[in-house]
């Protein structure tokens, strides 16, 4: 009897295996929950950052357009046809191909909303009537291996060309998956492109009433966030005339 009680008072091998298995399951569950929670936190932070970045892009374009300066009577507001960089064909290959050295102009105009003036305006020897007026261009480069494009804002004094070494570039995003613009005139008619130099051939106004800015940003988990904003432009009478 004494030997039986002594033997039964300890933990058997089966009980030890069961205890270790239960502890292992608990630790695995806790680790899995921790990993899932951290992944969710990272995704939420990335999503919030993308939303802030999208709002910043929209806000900068809106500020530039609100300070629009029309050059002479011909105007200086240009934008390309609506672009979709990731329209994929049946083989899953992007239908638009650009090397990283290429640039696609999506928006070009003159504005008094400058991040540089009056520092860069000292380079300008033109008359004081164009002081502070900047040529602003929004361009896309790419895509890279992850199918992301870069949105770049270039600003230079009005008297110089952006490609003459006088422009200052600002990178607004490295993860543009798609980017498109559409324009609306005073009658509510939608246009895929707008060029004030030939506005009389299209409609009576040099400037569109507003534009719709639509783009998407890629995330690390291969998801895409889409954004769309409506940006109003000043009336032609309000937009400042710039004469050389």
TrEMBL record:
PROSITE patterns: PROKAR_NTER_METHYL. InterPro entries: N_methyl_site (IPR012902), Pilin-like (IPR045584). SUPFAM superfamilies: Pili subunits. Pfam families: N_methyl. Transmembrane segments: none annotated. This is Prepilin-type N-terminal cleavage/methylation domain-containing protein. It comes from Desulfobaculum bizertense DSM 18034.
């Amino acid at each position: 009897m004494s030997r039986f009680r002594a033997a039964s008072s300890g933990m058997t091998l089966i009980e030890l295996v069961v205890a270790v298995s239960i502890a292992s399951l608990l630790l695995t569950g806790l680790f899995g929950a921790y990993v899932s929670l951290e992944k969710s936190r990272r995704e939420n932070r990335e999503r919030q950052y993308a939303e802030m970045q999208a709002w910043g892009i929209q806000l900068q374009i809106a500020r530039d357009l609100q300070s629009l300066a029309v050059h002479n009577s011909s105007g200086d507001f240009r934008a390309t046809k609506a672009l979709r960089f990731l329209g994929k064909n049946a083989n899953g290959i992007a239908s638009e191909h650009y090397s990283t050295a290429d640039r696609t102009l999506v928006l070009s105009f003159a504005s008094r909303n400058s991040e540089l003036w009056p520092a860069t305006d000292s380079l300008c020897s033109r008359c004081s009537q164009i002081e502070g007026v900047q040529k602003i261009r929004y361009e896309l480069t790419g895509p890279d291996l992850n199918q992301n494009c870069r949105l770049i804002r270039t600003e230079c004094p009005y008297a110089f060309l952006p490609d003459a070494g006088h422009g200052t570039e600002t990178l607004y995003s490295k993860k543009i998956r798609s980017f498109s613009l559409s324009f609306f005139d005073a009658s509510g008619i939608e246009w895929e492109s707008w060029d004030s130099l030939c506005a009389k051939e299209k409609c009576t106004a040099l400037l569109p009433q507003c534009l719709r800015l639509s783009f998407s940003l890629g995330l690390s988990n291969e998801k895409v966030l889409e954004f769309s904003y409506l940006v109003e432009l000043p009336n032609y009478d309000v937009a400042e005339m710039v004469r050389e």
